[in-house]
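Hey, quick one: can you model this chain's 3D structure?
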Amino acid sequence: MADFHQDGTVVQFHNLRSRPSEELIYELETFSQTRKISLILPSLFSELEGEALTNILKELSQVSYLHRIVIGLDQADEAQYRYAREFFSVLPQQHTVIWNDSPRMLQIQSRLEDLGLAPQEPGKGKNVWGCMGYLISCADSAVMAIHDCDILTYDREMLARLVYPVANPNFSYQLSKGYYPRIGGVRMNGRVTRLLVSPMLVSLKMVIGQRDYLDYLHSFRYPLSGEFAMRTGMLPDLRIPSDWGLEIGVLSEAWRNLGPRAICQVEISDAYDHKHQDLSPEDANAGLNRMSIDICKAVYRKLAADGTVFTPNVFRTLKATYHRRALDFLEAYYNDARMNGLTIDRHAEERSIEVFAENIIKAGHLFLDNPRETPFIATWNRVHAADPLLISDFRQAVAADQEEYA
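Sure thing. Here's the predicted structure for all 406 residues.
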């Protein structure tokens, strides 16, 4: 049975195993009669060939309260788009596959570039942003959920628990964040959260002092989870990062726009496993190496926007403080894993800490060298102000692709 701990910053919904999931789903079916619920699935074409997505669709096919599913398809050619349309046709709900690389979508990208509002790089952030724009243009959903397409341990109760806090009209929450233990077989996973984010947040408080924002981020059990749900009223003003700082960026936006009392986190699984990224210590533009730099910069940017002054000396001190704290965290995780019959490769974990420590200071230098860097994609409200027809043209382009390549 899960604990029932609340730390007072962000409300936590635990799975106390005291209520059948069927009851939760029945309530969601009731809520969905007046508050339509949609799901966004950002997907690479390669994920259609993996083992996870077939099971995800099997589970989603049994979810009766979903009004619409929007699939953002990246890295696909025409034949692969046609294949994807067939692949997702098993879904009984209204569903749309957005071919992000189609000629029509590239024309939309060109219009955004002419306005100076185009996403700066491809990836999950751009994919999610486009799917959100499509959902805004549909104007028929009150609640939107997002989760990844590589979840090996997926079941439909995950989605039910994720959306319940924001779908329930008697609750005031605007955003719900999923959390879970990262367990794969007999291994304890989740290196970036365990060995970078948590000790870095503790270290930042030691170096720059207490900040409400740091307490807020540290209150999340799994801040890097790709599963969250929100009420769609906040979508037009939501700034989506285009880099690996997506999850931290969304939490930071929620902090800026909503405040912690409108945000909750919910336990959605006992054990969660998905595709793992390589550390890629020799390539700063790949894997967890790139991810850790982008995450650090996302935190630095938010703190700077709130008035924190960073200098090279601050980052040098932060690196040293982090390294010691991260090793302490590793000792705790190693003992926790051992007590529960799980394994942790201490050498590989310490190697990760060394890379992350270097990236804490590398990200700091990148931030200081380019303080005006803004990896956020323009909000859809700004796009609409610059080109009032673009969002409707975006939707028409998606529909035209569906008709032409059926």
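One thing worth noting: The radius of gyration is 21 Å.
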